[in-house]
Structures are given as C-alpha cells and as structure tokens.
Specification:
Length: 246
C-alpha cells in the first residue's frame, strides 16, 4: 500500500490509494473514524488526477478528520497537546503532530519542534499513546547520550580508569546513584536536562568511588572537577518538579 501526502493550509493529510472493484469506477474518497483516508481508483488511474481529486476535497477531508479527532478525543493531559513543550538536553521543544508516510510511528527533532509522526493521526489525541512514544524515544536517547557522557567523564577523571557498569531507569526521587560495588544508576529523565547537568550528576557519582559520604572531601573533589556544581544543582532542583513529577 502506497501512502501519499498533500498539504492543506498548515496541515498535512496522508492518504492511501486502493484499487477500485470496478474497472471503470470513478475516484472514491473515504475518511474513516480512525483517521485513515482512502482513495479508490481504477487500476491504471493517473496519479496526478488522484492527487488533484484529493487536493480538491482537502477542506472536506480536514473537516472530517477534525470531527473524528474530537469524537475520539480521550482525556487530554496538558503536557501532551500539540504545542506543549517537551524538554530535551535542557531545551524546550513544542510538540507537533503529523501524519506519517509509513505504517509506523516515529519521532524526530526538526526545526526546533518535537515532531511526532503517526501512521494514524487520530492517535495524536491519545495522551497515553503520545506519552508512551515520548518515553520510548527518551529511553533510546538516554542509552546513547549517557554512554557518551560517561565515557567523556571516565577520560577526564584520573581515579576512574574504565567504563563502569551502569544502567538507567526512570526514577521519581533522584537523578543518580552509586552502589557500594560501583554500579552507577542514572535517571532516564536526566536526558531532558542540559549536558552540563548530566555531566555534573555523573561526576558526582564517580566522586563516590573515592568518598562514600557527602563529606567535606567529597565536595572538595566535586568542586575541583565541576566548579559550578552549585548552579547546576540548582538547575536540577528547579527541574525536579517539572521532570520527575510525571
Ligand atoms: Zn551522592
């Protein structure tokens, strides 16, 4: 099944072309409550004609889609509306929803927006679906970014000579921790904070390799490697309510 896109006003509309049952059938246009748009066309119909047909009916399609989106709207949480800001590496990006040319959903940061592409645009009204997609994406970013930042810190800190055993998971109350055996756990949500904040948490945990407690010597060591740790801690504290309370 091939999918095509047309733009109408600021909106993108995805549609699929399906063969009509009758060989001489006129072009048919269907908008389904789940957001699919189908054009039925005779086997060798001219694609340009099909596009023109869809374009000519774009206002009607858009109206139908909006109606179905209203009908199927689940409880929308303010954080997952179109335009709601989502944080990534310390910067806020407004959510933008688009139909996808593919049959799967995807996410990318593009032109200062968090663009979520849906195989079925009505899913964008499902806050649970949107939050699941975002969580999965954040998790993938965390894998890559934390690995790179840990590597960077290992190279910078003379008392750490190898990559530690580490993991990340969404935590409610802390940004990171270090076990007695030196396993470093990072909060997946940390990927929403600036790189400087991520590094400060990582260096904090590595400082526990030398000093288990938060004593004077611990802070002296932290300050030596992260001179602005106080400002970064404040930045993290300010984010705690926004990021960890979700
Ligand atoms: Zn600590």
């Amino acid at each position: 099944m091939t999918r095509y896109l047309i733009s109408y006003n600021e909106e993108l509309i995805a549609y699929e072309v399906r063969p009509a049952r009758k060989r001489r059938a006129a072009l048919g246009l269907y908008v389904y409550p789940d957001g699919r748009v189908h054009v039925t066309a005779p086997p060798r119909a001219d694609l340009k004609k099909i596009q023109e047909h869809v374009q000519a009916n774009a206002a009607w399609i858009s109206k139908q889609l909006k109606k179905f989106m209203r009908d199927t709207a689940q409880k929308i949480q303010p954080g997952y509306n179109s335009g709601a800001l989502q944080l990534y590496l310390g910067k806020g990006y407004p959510l933008k929803f688009e139909p996808s040319l593919e049959l799967f959903n995807s996410i990318e940061i593009r032109q200062d927006a968090f663009v979520l592409q849906f195989s079925n645009i009505t899913m964008s009204r499902d806050a649970k679906k949107v939050s699941e997609m975002l969580d999965e994406w954040y998790c993938q970013q965390a894998d890559e970014i934390f690995s790179a930042r840990l590597k960077h810190c290992v190279e910078a800190l003379p008392w750490v000579d190898a990559m530690p055993v580490w993991r990340h998971s969404p935590m409610k109350s802390q940004w990171g921790s270090c076990s007695a055996s030196g396993v470093i756990a990072l909060n997946t949500h940390l990927v929403k904070c600036s790189v400087a904040c991520i590094d400060s948490v990582i260096v904090h945990e590595f400082c526990h390799y030398k000093h288990r407690n938060h004593g004077k010597r611990f802070y002296a060591l932290l300050e030596k490697h992260v001179p602005d740790w106080r400002a970064l801690k404040k930045e993290l504290n300010d984010l705690t309510s926004r990021v960890l309370a979700v």
